[in-house]
Design goal:
Rossmann fold, SAM-dependent_MTases_sf, Methyltransf_12, Methyltransferase
Length: 192
């Protein structure tokens, strides 16, 4: 997708988080948390024009799977035109509806969930719905990786998962906080 087409999509869709695709530096930093030496199933919310999927597909094993959940129809069309790999599924859906999109045998068995969707744009109830759905689909010990423009996700993540670690990537427009969250089986904590 050209930079002009990406910008047009950004202008048309208020839920697109950034005016530019994620930088290679940020992609590498986020993906450094993925163990590419093992087979895995990874769900990505909001893959946009496919910056993360292209990187992940180059590194993941032949038996790994990549499930892309994208709400924007222009991006879905672009992904379907540019990614031709039997390890990939592309769904036009909202992240909060991920459980209904996955095969029932995958729920509770996902190794990684990666997300660049702008959680700061979501209302409190919707944010919690997406995070709870994410917890539901992850296996015990599975990891939620989110890259966001601020630290706004700390409290909601603590409420649902009860843990997080963050890193900061200044070499991106905009700069990103990277959240690394484990599904440790707890019900989270009440943070007031």
């Amino acid at each position: 997708m050209s930079k002009i087409d990406f910008l047009k999509t950004f202008i048309k869709d208020k839920d697109v988080a950034s005016v530019t695709p994620t930088s290679k530096h940020c992609v590498k930093k986020v993906c450094s948390n993925i163990d590419f030496s093992k087979d895995f199933t990874l769900v990505e919310y909001g893959p946009g024009d496919g910056v993360f999927p292209k990187y992940i597909l180059e590194k993941m094993s032949p038996n790994s799977r990549l499930i892309l959940i994208e709400a924007n129809e222009d991006f879905v069309e672009h992904l379907k035109e540019t990614i031709n790999d039997p390890r990939v599924e592309i769904h036009n859906a909202l992240a909060g509806n991920v459980e209904s999109v996955l095969n029932s045998e995958d729920v509770g068995k996902i190794d990684y969930v990666l997300s660049g969707i702008p959680f700061s744009f979501l209302k409190k109830d919707r944010k919690r719905e997406v995070l709870q759905a994410t917890k539901n689909i992850l296996k015990d010990g599975g990891m939620f990786l989110a890259y966001q423009t601020s630290g706004h996700l700390k409290k909601p993540v603590m409420d649902v998962f009860g843990n997080y670690d963050t890193d900061f990537v200044p070499l991106n427009i905009p700069p990103y906080f990277i959240y690394k969250v484990y599904n440790n089986g707890s019900n989270g904590v009440d943070v007031i």
